[in-house]
């Protein structure tokens, strides 16, 4: 006599198999497609902004027609060409030239002169200073980058959060928040948007440095814990700290 335990498991139907294959295809195609679309869109936006400032004779269409001897854009022999990315090339070239000039003595003098004129203009002064601070924060290659990912107990003991160590506390914060081991400034990001969060100052001994990179820690925060690199090492570090505190 057969029992329910002797029955073979049901195989997925055709629709279920097709649905699984479709979802797998979406997972594979979506990141690639969105990345290509975003890059293509940004390049087109830069081209649309930059190319109007480039003389027609130096654009690909003008160069090609000049090479084959066409001089009249309204003639039937005129070749229409739309090469995406030319504006990006001119933008990069222009930026390099401006940066090279700005590093010299004449360039720095011109920048100081221009900024002094901007400082005397009420509305423009506020807009320019705000944009300059944002640009310096985003693009400046200095000590402003995060040093390491870490674990800290926040918002209370027994609850752990992933943070990014900015630097050692300095100035008035370090003087008034006295601690024998020193203080660390830690940025605690929010999920799923890691660009917002909290700046907190912790004693050095309360901060557990993680082996994972800044990029892996950011993926962990953005994915709400679904992407979990080096999970065992993080667990061992927490258990080790708990033993010392016991």
Secondary structure topology:
Blueprint: H1 14-50, H2 60-68, H3 86-102, H4 105-119, H5 122-139, E1 148-153, E2 160-168, H6 171-176, E3 183-189, E4 197-203, E5 208-209, H7 214-222, H8 231-245
Antiparallel strand pairs: 1-2, 1-5, 2-3, 3-4
Helix pairs in contact: 1-3, 3-4
Structure description:
The chain is an alpha+beta fold and 246 residues long. The protein has a domain at 148-245: SH3 type barrels (Roll), CATH 2.30.30. Helices cover 51% and strands 13% of the residues. The chain contains eight helices and five strands, in the order αααααββαβββαα. The protein has helices at 14-50, 60-68, 86-102, 105-119, 122-139, 171-176, 214-222, 231-245, and strands at residues 148-153, 160-168, 183-189, 197-203, 208-209. The protein has a five-stranded antiparallel beta sheet with strand order 4-3-2-1-5, with helices on one face. Helix 1 crosses helix 3 (86-102) and helix 3 (86-102) crosses helix 4. The longest helix has 37 residues, at 14-50. The chain is flat, with a radius of gyration of 29 Å. It starts with 13 loop residues before the first helix and ends with a helix.
């Amino acid at each position: 006599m057969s029992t329910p335990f002797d029955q073979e498991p049901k195989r997925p139907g055709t629709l279920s198999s097709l649905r699984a294959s479709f979802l797998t295809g979406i997972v594979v195609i979506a990141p690639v497609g969105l990345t290509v679309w975003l890059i293509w869109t940004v390049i087109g936006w830069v081209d649309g902004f930059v190319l109007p400032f480039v003389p027609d004779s130096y654009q690909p269409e003008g160069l090609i027609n000049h090479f084959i001897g066409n001089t009249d854009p309204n003639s039937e022999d005129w070749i229409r060409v739309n090469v995406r990315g030319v504006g990006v090339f001119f933008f990069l070239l222009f930026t390099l030239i401006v940066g090279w000039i700005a590093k010299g003595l004449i360039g720095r003098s011109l920048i100081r002169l221009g900024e002094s004129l901007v400082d005397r203009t009420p509305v423009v002064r506020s807009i320019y200073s705000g944009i300059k601070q944002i640009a310096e924060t985003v693009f400046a290659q200095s000590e402003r980058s995060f040093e390491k990912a870490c674990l800290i107990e926040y918002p209370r003991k027994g609850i752990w959060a992933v943070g990014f160590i900015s630097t050692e506390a300095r100035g008035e914060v370090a003087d008034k928040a006295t601690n024998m081991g020193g203080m660390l400034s830690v940025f605690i990001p929010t999920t799923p948007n890691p660009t917002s969060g909290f700046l907190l100052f912790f004693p050095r001994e309360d901060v557990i440095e993680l082996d994972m990179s800044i990029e892996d820690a950011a993926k962990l925060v953005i994915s709400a814990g679904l992407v979990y690199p080096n999970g065992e090492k993080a667990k061992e570090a927490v258990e080790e700290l708990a033993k010392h505190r016991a």
